[in-house]
Amino acid sequence: MKQTAVDLLFTKLWEAPKDKFVWNSILNEAKEMEQEQIRTAFIEGKYDNKKYVNSETYYQETYEEL
Q: What is the pTM of this model?
């Protein structure tokens, strides 16, 4: 199971000191991760469109434990 950007954000903010510069850095890291996940989903959907029937199936198989 891969970690989503939201999971990363929550985990890191939970463990980080309450400092706006640290939190801003963590937020930017999560945004970059989200962008990469969107790019990956697009590429996989474009070049392997028979594997996933819809976005929900893709999400479940990629990010949720089965």
A: 0.63
Closest to 58 (Cα-Cα) out of 50, 34, 31, 7: 50
The DSSP output letter for 48 is -
pLDDT tens-place string over residues 2-42: 788 888 888 888 888 888 888 888 889 989 988 888 888 77
Per DSSP, the chain holds a count of helices (H) and strands (E) of 3, 0
What count of residues does the chain have?
66
How far apart are alpha carbons 30 and 9 in whole angstroms? 6
Domain boundaries, the chain: 16-48
